[in-house]
């Protein structure tokens, strides 16, 4: 488990025409150890950029980014990342995919196999351990991707639209599963999604980002909304829909539709 502390974060890109794109400015956010925080916002507001900087895939142009009190200087297995495309190795079995990270970190074969077994169990896939990714459904592959990251015992789980490519039923199953896994592991989670409903269903707090280069204002945090709902969440409840309306209004203000 690790806390996140982001202060005064800005990110500029050099565009191909020689101009500078200011993707985001003045993003400050603290996430407590073990907390589940979702990030929502219209396309281009900087959600993925924030996640990539926390993952260490990109460097901030300004500001400080601390995970567990340590400045992020590059990728680390301590910060597990799950993307929309599962990114599994097609030539390895499910079991080998999950054991891969621990083996890379020097864990011996037997202990890595035990870790693989354990986390495939966690995501309910022990029965397909010897199958290859190509033999699994999209939902199963995403479960393997989550097991693979958990096998590294990350202090922080960074998820970028992980369920975006899945059908509605599988997506809902995986949301329930992720909440269960989070309760079990207490790993800090930062979860980027386009779905306001998914964010409210999963998170303790929802970070609402607005702006973005396409809107003439750099991406920034508009609000951080606490989700005071019971652990078992009912997407049809009045309280759930009140929060959804509030966040939806913030996401859509300032967005021009053509
Ligand atoms: N490598 C890059 N070079 C130039 N501009 C970039 C680059 N990566 C991102 N941007 C710009 O930075 C801004 C933020 O992009 P980002 O991908 O973080 O947005 P997002 O909120 O995740 O969008 P989406 O919801 O569509 O995935 C956008 O305006 C984008 O065009």
UniProtKB/TrEMBL annotation:
Keywords (A to Z) from UniProt: ATP-binding, Nucleotide-binding, Transport
Signal sequence region: none
SMART domains: AAA
Domain of life (superkingdom): Bacteria
PROSITE patterns: ABC_TRANSPORTER_1, ABC_TRANSPORTER_2
Name the record gives this protein: ABC transporter ATP-binding protein
InterPro entries, A to Z: AAA+_ATPase, ABC_transporter-like_ATP-bd, ABC_transporter-like_CS, ABC_transporter_ATP-bind, P-loop_NTPase
Cited SUPFAM superfamilies: P-loop containing nucleoside triphosphate hydrolases
Domain ABC transporter: 4-236
ATP-binding is among the record's keywords: yes
GO MF annotation terms: ATP binding; ATP hydrolysis activity
Pfam family name, one: ABC_tran
Organism: Cryobacterium glaciale
């Amino acid at each position: 488990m690790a806390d996140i502390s982001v202060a005064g974060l800005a990110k500029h890109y050099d565009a191909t025409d020689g101009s500078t794109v200011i993707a985001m400015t003045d993003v400050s956010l603290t996430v407590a150890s073990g907390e589940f925080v979702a990030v929502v916002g219209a396309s281009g507001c900087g959600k993925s950029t924030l996640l990539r900087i926390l993952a260490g895939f990109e460097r901030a142009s300004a500001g400080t980014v601390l995970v567990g009190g340590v400045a992020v200087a590059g990728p680390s297995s301590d910060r597990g990342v799950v993307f929309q495309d599962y990114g599994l190795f097609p030539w390895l079995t499910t079991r080998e995919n999950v054991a891969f990270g621990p083996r890379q970190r020097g864990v011996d074969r037997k202990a890595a196999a035990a870790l693989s077994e354990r986390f495939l169990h966690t995501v309910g896939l022990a029965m397909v351990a010897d199958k290859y990714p190509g033999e699994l459904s999209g939902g199963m592959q995403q479960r393997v991707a989550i097991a693979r990251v958990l096998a590294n015992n990350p202090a922080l789980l960074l998820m970028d639209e992980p369920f975006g490519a899945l059908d509605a039923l599988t997506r809902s199953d995986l949301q329930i599963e992720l909440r269960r896994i989070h309760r079990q592991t207490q790993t800090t989670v930062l979860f980027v999604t386009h779905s306001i409903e998914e964010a409210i269903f999963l998170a303790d707090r929802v970070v609402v980002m607005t702006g973005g280069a396409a809107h003439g204002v750099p991406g920034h945090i508009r609000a951080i909304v606490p989700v005071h709902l019971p652990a078992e969440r009912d997407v049809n409840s009045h309280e759930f829909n009140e929060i959804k309306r509030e966040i939806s209004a913030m996401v859509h203000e300032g967005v021009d539709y053509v």
